[in-house]
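Deadline looming. Please check this record:
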Amino acid sequence: ILLMEEINDNPNAYQSAKVDMLTPKGDSLNLILQISDNIFMNNASLMTVAFQTISLTPEIIAKLNNLDFPFDLLIPPFGLNEEFYKSLDKIHNKEIVLWLVMESTKLDKRHNKLRPLRIHHTAEQIEETINAAKEVLPSAAGIATRYGEQAVKHKQLLQAILKPTQKKGMWFLDLSMEDRTVVPQTCKDLDIACKIAFPYNPDNSSIEDYVHQKLREAPKSGTSVMTIPLTEQNLSKIEDISKKAAKQGTTLVDLSTLFNSK
């Protein structure tokens, strides 16, 4: 060993040293040795927490404002009362997403007030609906599917939805859980940012299991999107999620940051 020098400028390691040495063949070898209390580098992976939102109470607003990370609110732009939309101004650290009802076998006339985007609509009608949604929530950064398992299989309908989405500088999130979705290819054709994510399904798991699964997914794949209904109970399940994420090198970000990550 020719030289060993302690290094103090690495925030991810609490003991590290530079070592210069000679190999048995006489070649020089330069090494950095480090011991860390965290095997993951900061920002090694990204994760978004998104809430499906249909009602807001003072208690929920207070809990949201206590969260120590950015998050997304998936909000129906139609069918809710004016007070709901006004109360959004009280929530900090949020990013808003248009949670639009799209073609599905589950739709009936009760959904008409939500102005669903349907196969029989013209491209002009669909663009008009998206424009109206953006007027209700002008800060919306993207569009997410609500229902929509038929919409994401129908290329013509999907193109009619994606074109005005792109025109307004928004991205598209497919939450339909439809295996035969054509979203990836259609988005590629139109050069619009899109992702597929899998929201919480109470038929498959508990909230605790889903949260754990999404946390594990982030370091494995580099990104993860957790989508859960906005309730006081669910908020209490994720109060410490930023600490758990930090321990594995995962940074909590909003969806736009996730979409823009390489």
Remarks:
- The longest helix spans residues 207-221.
